[in-house]
C-alpha cells in the first residue's frame, strides 16, 4: 500500500487550485453554533466535483456508461464559515490512476487567499449498470488531466 504524502494543507493558497466555483451560503447551512455545519463541506465537495465532471468531462449522471463512486474522503478545518458568506471552492486533482482519481477542494471565504478548510475524496470509476471498476473514459481522463497539479 502506498502511504499518502504528508502535506500541510493549511498552507494551501488559491493558486494551488485550477478550477473555481462560487457558493453563496444559506441560512440552513449553519448549525446551532452559528457556523457552517461540517456535513455541508461534503455537499460543497460533491457540488464542485460533479459540476466539473459534467461541464468539463462530458459526463451525464443519468446517461453516462460510467460513474464515479466515493471510496474515501477527508476534511481539515482551519477557520469557521457561515451564513451569509460567499465562498470560492477551488478544485485540483492530486492523483490520477487508470480507474480512480483523488480530488482536493480548497474552501475559501471570498476575497481570502488562505483556505478555511481543505478536503476531498477519491472516486473509483465503475460501469453504471454493473458497478464493476472500469478504466476511465478518455474524455473524463482528458478533463481531469487539466486539474492534475504535480
From TrEMBL:
Belongs to the 4-hydroxybenzoyl-CoA thioesterase family. The keyword Hydrolase applies. This is Thioesterase domain-containing protein. Pfam families: 4HBT. Keywords: Hydrolase. Residues 34-112 form the Thioesterase domain. GO terms for molecular function: fatty acyl-CoA hydrolase activity. The keyword Disulfide bond does not apply. It comes from the Eukaryota.
Amino acid at each position: 500500500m502506498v502511504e499518502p504524502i504528508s502535506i500541510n494543507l493549511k498552507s494551501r493558497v488559491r493558486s494551488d487550485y485550477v478550477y473555481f466555483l462560487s457558493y453563496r451560503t444559506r441560512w440552513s447551512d449553519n448549525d446551532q453554533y452559528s457556523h457552517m455545519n461540517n456535513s455541508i463541506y461534503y455537499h460543497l465537495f460533491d457540488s464542485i466535483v460533479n459540476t466539473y465532471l459534467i461541464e468539463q468531462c462530458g459526463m451525464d449522471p443519468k446517461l453516462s456508461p460510467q460513474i464515479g463512486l466515493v471510496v474515501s474522503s477527508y476534511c481539515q478545518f482551519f477557520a469557521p464559515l457561515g451564513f451569509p458568506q460567499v465562498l470560492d471552492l477551488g478544485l485540483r486533482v492530486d492523483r490520477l490512476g487508470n480507474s480512480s482519481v483523488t480530488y482536493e477542494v480548497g474552501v475559501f471565504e471570498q476575497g481570502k487567499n488562505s483556505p478555511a478548510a481543505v478536503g476531498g475524496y477519491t472516486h473509483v470509476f465503475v460501469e453504471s449498470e454493473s458497478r464493476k471498476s472500469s478504466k476511465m473514459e478518455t474524455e473524463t481522463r482528458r478533463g481531469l488531466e487539466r486539474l492534475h497539479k504535480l
